[in-house]
Design brief:
alpha/beta; seven-stranded mixed beta sheet; binds zinc ion; Rossmann fold; six-stranded parallel beta sheet; binds nicotinamide-adenine-dinucleotide; Quinone Oxidoreductase, Chain A, domain 1
């Protein structure tokens, strides 16, 4: 520790949550990030949160992540420093950080798929150091940051980094939810519940939430689910078919990332239905083409792009999005290991989204 302190004489230190392989994270001292490219910004984190994807990382489901990586891809903060190539932001601006980094110039950025940017995509808390830290370097800051009012609700705003645009883009838009539809969302975690909020923008007739956790299902009913199914008895498919008079659902959204939940989705689709996968999967699933080949169904997979974040931000500012209702627990950033325990055993702690402030 003493050596680190000396070493960092003109390179101040900070604290961060660091990944050291599956099931091993520590809260440790790291050098503060510095501007590397002219288009970088350094953001001082004031609010961050944990994602189900961080839990997948801890289980070893995300092989792209390296040792000693600072985790986290969601955050709100204050710009501390900008490179000379950042034009749209200033030091002192309050911003929300998008999970996706976009150069804005490559083929995939130009076709509206920055999730696959050739010099970006999902970098933060994956291929570069992330937001579960006191400071973070944000590449291509003009594209990856969104300005917030200084007095905004930061707990609500941090849902715009990943959870809400993921639910809208990967779940609702990919699943083509439309007025009058019957929608099932498997997984009532923050992403499943954000999908529930986003789905209601399209006036579906029914939204059925499926999970093992009664507390999260109760939250789903408060947030607008018309039906909920606890699938711990292994009978989710039968229950959804009963609730839909045998018809099945127009849209099934997978928001967990397991074979068991993907299987529920493929078994409850009505003819012409859409199966929108949102969950991060660490293992193969079986696609039942022996029954689905004639179902006229569409299967989509997607990594969040974040293109809907400006629209979601406007709705939030207008009071038309209940994002703050997703927050169940508040911690200080330094208590992040406790926050991981709470979020990782959500049912025992009645947890939904866990936010951390500095
Ligand atoms: N595609 C993307 O770009 C993207 C972006 C963000 C998150 N994700 C993924 O979305 C998923 C959900 O994220 P989250 O933050 O809500 O995670 P989470 O871990 O908080 O929620 C997962 C939920 O699934 C439920 N669940 C687990 N096993 C189940 C089973 N067998 N049957 C029914 N329910 C079950 C849990 O009780 C929990 O409520 C994760 O896989 C995450 O990695 C994907
Ligand atoms: Zn996320
Ligand atoms: Zn690009």
């Amino acid at each position: 520790m003493a050596i680190l302190a000396n070493h960092n004489a003109h390179h101040p230190a900070m604290h961060a949550l660091v990944y050291h392989g599956p099931h091993r994270v520590t809260w440790e001292e790291k050098p503060r990030p510095e501007i590397c490219e002219p288009t970088d910004a350094i953001v001082r984190i004031t609010m961050t949160t944990l994602c189900g994807t961080d839990l997948h990382i801890l289980r070893g489901d995300v092989p792209s992540i390296g040792d000693s990586r600072i985790l986290g891809h969601e955050g709100v903060g204050i710009i501390e420093e900008i490179g000379p190539g950042v034009h749209d932001f200033h030091v002192g601006d309050c911003v929300v950080i998008s999970v996706i980094t976009a150069c804005g110039r490559c083929h995939f950025c130009k076709v509206g798929m920055p999730s696959h940017c050739l010099d970006g995509g999902w970098l933060l808390g994956n291929r570069i150091d992330g937001t579960q830290a006191e400071f973070v370097r944000v590449p291509y800051a003009d594209n990856g940051l969104h300005r917030l009012a200084p007095d905004c609700d930061q707990e609500a705003a941090v849902m715009l980094s990943c959870a809400l645009p993921t639910g809208l883009e990967c779940g609702v838009l990919s699943g083509h939810v439309k007025p009058g539809d019957t929608v099932a969302i498997v997984g009532a975690g923050p992403v499943g519940l954000a999908t529930l909020l986003a789905a209601q923008l399209y006036s579906p007739r029914e939204i059925i939430l499926i999970d093992l956790d009664d507390n999260r299902l109760a939250a789903a009913r408060q947030l607008g689910a018309t039906r909920t199914v606890n699938s711990s008895d292994g009978k989710a498919v039968e229950q959804v078919m009963l609730l839909t008079d045998g018809a099945g659902v127009d849209v099934a959204i997978e928001a967990v990332g397991l074979a068991a939940t993907f299987n529920i989705c493929q078994a409850i689709l009505a003819p012409g239905g859409h199966l929108a996968n949102v969950g991060v999967h660490g293992k193969a699933v079986e696609l039942h083409l022996e029954t689905l080949w004639s179902a006229n169904m569409t299967l989509t997979t997607r990594l969040i792009d974040g293109g809907t974040t400006p629209m979601l931000l406007k709705m939030m500012e207008a009071g038309k999005l209940n994002a703050q209702k997703l927050v169940s627990h508040r911690f200080k950033l330094a208590e992040i290991l406790q926050a991981y325990e709470t979020f990782g055993d959500a049912a025992a702690h009645r947890a939904i989204k866990v936010v951390l402030s500095t």
